[in-house]
Amino acid sequence: MANATVTSKGQVTIPKRILDHLRIEPGDLDDFIVDADGRVVVRAATADIGELKGLLRKKRRPVSLEEMDQAISRQHSPKS
Predict the structure, then answer these.
(1) What is the CATH class of 1-47?
(2) How many whole angstroms separate alpha carbon 36 and alpha carbon 38?
(3) Would you kindly state where each structural domain of the chain is located, as residue ranges?
(4) Residue 75: what pLDDT?
(5) What's the pTM?
(6) Rounded Cα–Cα distance for residues 14 and 43 (Å)
(7) C-alpha to C-alpha distance for 70 and 80, rounded to whole angstroms
(8) Is residue 18 within 8 Å of residue 2, measured between CB atoms?
């Protein structure tokens, strides 16, 4: 078990062995998740490149300005 002290500003220094375990480096973003049991889970918010597979669509056809204008008009026109 690792311990940390909270400062008067609400800051906590995460122990080095925890940082190493989570592979957190200076400048990384971290997620704090409160689960249904009230436990707090800390995880590095960095994504492995493999996790990004399929995030973006393969191929999109270019859209003209006219098509964009038409789509905007359809969304903002009064419904009957």
Answers:
(1) mainly beta
(2) 5
(3) 1-47
(4) 82
(5) 0.48
(6) 12
(7) 18
(8) yes
Q: How many residues does the chain have?
A: 80
Whole-angstrom Cα distance, residue 30 to residue 40?
Answer: 12
DSSP one-letter code for 6: B
Look up residue 54 and give its two tokens: 């399929």
What is the pLDDT, as a whole number, of residue 48?
67
Average pLDDT, the chain: 83
Residue found by looking up tokens 């669509």 in the block: 57
**CB-CB contact of 70 with 57 (8 Å):** no
pLDDT tens digits, residue range 5-15?
999 999 999 99
Nearest alpha-carbon partner for 30 in 39, 19, 38: 19
Beta strands in 1-80 (DSSP E): 30-34, 40-44
- C-alpha dihedral sign at 35, 24, 22, 19: negative
